[in-house]
């Protein structure tokens, strides 16, 4: 019977792929966990309870058919499992690596609620897609019949790449413009290799190129062409730039040498892993080797920074976060990984000033306490009088999140509507901006969010753009 392989959660324990020892993995930027062997993946997939209402799928932004591909995996039907996982996601092996499953699918697994430990969904997803690449099951992008229309996509991050793939398969000519010299956006330059090795991203990009998608790298809209120029070049334009402007810290000494932005720091490290020349890394400005490092922030970017600093050979690494562990926005798994690797978390603390004059030598911090709930329902941090402390620091990394850049000004497009947060204003039904034929998706609309939501937005906006261009083409035929 097909389902004999399932419902094994009572007698079979939850087992994640083994992680390399903390002292060994801290020596390199390889991913920290090994991949399942085939029998282990099948066994863990067989723990799925095959719920009538699969909360894992409900809480996945892509609504992946998780119970179905877990069943196929448990039955040894790995190619079918891959095909089903790929049916709803353009990057399943990337989501399997970097999604915060503990907050999404696994965190809402029914057997997790029953005390048996969630099915290891992300690890199985990574396994079946890596297996697909190895076995040649990943099919090339197959362009549909030529529509005679072209699309320009600004931003080669997950939203832009996802939309590009769907639009190319619909038969559009697709051109992707990105300010960096490699496609991938934060997947390439923002996320460290120990979470997402770069060849995993590059093989996805290569597949899109082989499918006829044209990438214009080192291309900055507003410098190399205005938005209007791209609109005249293409039938429709998608803005999928993400949000890259770092949130500021207002404190004395914040402009000192040695106080740096998280994205600058992570980009330098990732460029080194590609073998690029990175002067700011080589001169020590963006290199933690031998330094006392303090990272300010509690999200996943802060976790990426502290764990990168460990691998660069920092003398010490501390993370300051103004709330407690239970209220931090970052993945609890990432916190645990960081602690295993020697990072010290200083909970309920916030910087007051950065000492040292021209070059930072320390952080003056206040102890915090949690007060009344704020507008989101979270208890707001407030200064705890008499709780000041001094921390030595040769490198301070600001990782407080990201905001939207001023795209209307950057793009030379003052008519591009924005919200009060600086994100692009779009029609909720069509995902179109205030400019006709210009759509937007991903973080530049929703604010800093998850990669899986960007992929979902890319999928959705491709359908809206297709409908709009099809209607436009039909109207032109009628007019003729």
UniProtKB/TrEMBL annotation:
It holds the Pfam family Pyr_redox_2. Its EC number is 1.4.1.13, 1.4.1.14. Residues 25-136 form the Dihydroprymidine dehydrogenase domain. Keywords: 4Fe-4S, Iron, Iron-sulfur, Metal-binding, Oxidoreductase. One of its GO terms (molecular function) is glutamate synthase (NADPH) activity. It comes from the Bacteria. Residues 151-458 form the FAD/NAD(P)-binding domain. PANTHER family: GLUTAMATE SYNTHASE [NADPH] SMALL CHAIN, GLUTAMATE SYNTHASE [NADPH] SMALL CHAIN-RELATED. NCBIfam families: gltD_gamma_fam. This is Glutamate synthase (NADPH/NADH) small chain.
């Amino acid at each position: 019977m097909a389902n004999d392989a399932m419902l094994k959660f009572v007698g079979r324990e939850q087992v994640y792929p083994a992680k390399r020892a903390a002292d060994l993995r801290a020596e390199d930027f390889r991913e920290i966990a090994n991949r399942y062997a085939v029998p282990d993946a099948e066994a863990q997939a067989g723990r799925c309870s095959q719920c009538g209402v699969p909360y894992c799928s409900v809480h996945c932004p892509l609504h992946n058919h998780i119970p179905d591909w877990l069943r196929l995996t448990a039955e040894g039907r790995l190619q079918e499992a891959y095909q089903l996982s790929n049916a709803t996601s353009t990057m399943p092996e990337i989501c399997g690596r970097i999604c915060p499953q503990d907050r999404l699918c696994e965190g809402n697994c029914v057997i997790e609620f029953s005390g048996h430990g969630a099915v290891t969904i992300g690890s199985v997803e990574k396994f079946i897609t890596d297996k697909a690449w190895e076995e040649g099951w990943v099919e090339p992008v197959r362009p549909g019949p030529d529509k005679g229309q072209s699309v320009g996509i600004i931003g080669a991050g997950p939203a832009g790449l996802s939309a590009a793939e769907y639009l190319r398969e619909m038969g559009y000519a697709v051109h992707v413009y990105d300010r960096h010299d490699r496609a991938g956006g934060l997947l390439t330059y923002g996320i460290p290799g120990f979470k997402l090795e770069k060849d995993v991203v590059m093989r996805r990009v290569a597949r899109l190129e082989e499918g006829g998608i044209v990438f214009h790298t080192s291309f900055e809209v507003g410098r190399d062409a205005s938005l209007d120029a791209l609109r005249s070049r293409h039938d429709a334009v998608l803005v999928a730039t993400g949000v890259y402007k770092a949130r500021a810290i207002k404190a004395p000494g914040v402009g000192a040498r040695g106080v740096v932005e998280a994205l600058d720091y992570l980009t330098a490290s990732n460029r080194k892993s590609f073998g690029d020349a990175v002067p700011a890394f080589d001169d020590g400005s963006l290199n933690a080797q031998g330094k006392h490092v303090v990272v300010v922030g509690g999200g996943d970017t802060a976790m990426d920074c502290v764990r990168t600093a460990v691998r660069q050979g920092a003398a010490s690494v501390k993370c300051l976060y103004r709330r407690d562990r239970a209220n931090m926005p970052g993945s609890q798994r990432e916190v645990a990984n960081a602690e295993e690797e020697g990072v010290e978390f200083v909970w309920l603390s916030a910087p007051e000033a950065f000492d040292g004059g021209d070059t930072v030598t320390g952080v003056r911090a206040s102890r915090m306490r949690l007060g009344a709930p704020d507008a989101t329902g979270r208890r707001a941090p407030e200064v705890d009088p008499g709780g000041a402390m001094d921390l030595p620091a040769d490198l301070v990394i600001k990782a407080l999140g990201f905001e939207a850049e001023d795209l209307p000004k950057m793009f030379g497009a003052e008519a591009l509507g924005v919200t009060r947060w600086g994100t692009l204003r779009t029609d909720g039904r069509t995902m179109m901006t205030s400019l006709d034929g210009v759509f937007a998706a991903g973080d530049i609309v929703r604010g800093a969010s998850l990669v899986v939501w960007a992929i979902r937005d890319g999928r959705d906006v491709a359908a809206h753009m297709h409908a709009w261009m099809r209607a436009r083409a039909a109207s032109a035929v009628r007019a003729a």
